[in-house]
Amino acid sequence: MTRSLLLCLLSFVATHLWAADTTKASLPIYQDPVTTKHAVVIDGKRIEYEATAGHLTLTREDGTVRARMFFVAYTKTGVSDPASRPLTFSFNGGPGSSSVWLHLGVLGPRRVLMNDDGTTKPPPYQLVDNDQSWLDMTDLVFIDPVSTGYSRAADEKTAGQEFHGYRQDLESVGAFIHRWISDHKRWASPKFLIGESYGTTRAAGLSEHLQSRYGMYLNGVILVSAVLNFQTIDFNEGNDLPYALFLPTYAATARYHNKIGGDATLEQLAASARQWAEGGYTTALMKGDALNDLERDETMRRLTALTGLSEDYLDKTDLRVNIHKFCAELLRDQGLAVGRFDSRYTGAVANRLSEWMERDPSHHPTIAGCFSTCINDYLTRELNVSTTLPYEVLTGRVWPWDFGNAKNEYLNVAPALRDAMLMNPDLKVWVLNGYFDLATPFYATEYTFAHMGLPSSHRENISMSYYKAGHMMYLLKTELIQMRADAKNYFGDR
Description:
There is one protein chain. The chain is an alpha/beta fold. It has 2 domains: 323 residues, Alpha/Beta hydrolase fold, catalytic domain (Rossmann fold, 3-Layer(aba) Sandwich), CATH 3.40.50; 84 residues, no CATH class. It contains 16 helices and 14 strands. Strands 1, 2, 3, 4, 7, 8, 9, 10, 13 and 14 form a 10-stranded mixed beta sheet that branches. It has a two-stranded antiparallel ribbon with strand order 5-6. The protein has a two-stranded antiparallel sheet with strand order 11-12. The N and C termini lie far apart (81 Å).
């Protein structure tokens, strides 16, 4: 063989081997569940547990694969009777969010290290043992809905139609829960759901879906920063409801940033704002253009006293300030915007004349980078997950989201939760609210539960807690500790 022929042959083989390796590496790798053993100290007690991370395959009845859903499960070791051990399924919202926030923020045995005031430490970020974890009270399963985290549809071309919608999401997450419980023989365990933000929408819908589809009756549903009725948060023309329901949070925010004064406590300020929001302000909004000059002036005066916004600005907004305008306007004179997820946070703006907030300073840079870094490091280095897939922390690939029967109305899942509670009188619902949450404000949640049509005999099954932080109230160390104390009371009632 001549030297030139040999070189050509070697070049041909190398090229094709490289191409083959590249093709193989470009294929998604799904992780078979892998289990590791760990321990964490909670309340001074050492809790030994297993962490299992990987994909659960959803199949159709003919055996074909529908999706591979990623999960991380924590189970306390040394438990002989599963019926004595509660089991909680956790997910976040978006739609399009993975389960990382509740996982590494409050519930799991490891959490992102933050400053005690909820601000982020500089990179590189790190995880620490979470001595406020709920793992001593309940086993935990964190679910990434299809297209979030490492979860993927078998056919990406039909993923939108099959998974990206309210009904489709309930069906797939419900199927995951059914499969996981059956595979791990946990039907006898007390069962709970915990969701945050749109995850509360999912949890409320699942409470009814799991009962009617699988005969799976839950012990409890935990709603963190709830949104069940989207009319309460959608600032659309012709829908005046959110303006009144956001007002108490506007007032709390204005007080926090010294835009209004007074000696009232935060709770007293919220109560005063609620009272006027459901009275004089709602009346003014309902009158619309029929509001006379005297009534308009009085409404502007009261709004200024509660929001810190000028009467001139309120006049130009026709007494209606939506969330994005409020966040841009409140501290405009300082060149700052306030956060939507947590209005205690502020961030500099590039365009001080912008009518709308440019970005949410309570998301970027506060939590986005540190949670993304930590979940990727944790899964690969501590839980031995191996995949070429990118971990979708908060993705837009689920949009457009199908809101199902709400195409010409607002999605409202409160009736589904009501029906679940009527079918299951022992179902206990715990709602957690942040005073500084401008994404799902506490007064909107109160309004929703006051209008869900639940008989008085069942209302005692609903409890509400309030925290002096925002949407992710657990970022503030004092509230993280309080959440655990409140959870001990909740699970202790089982």
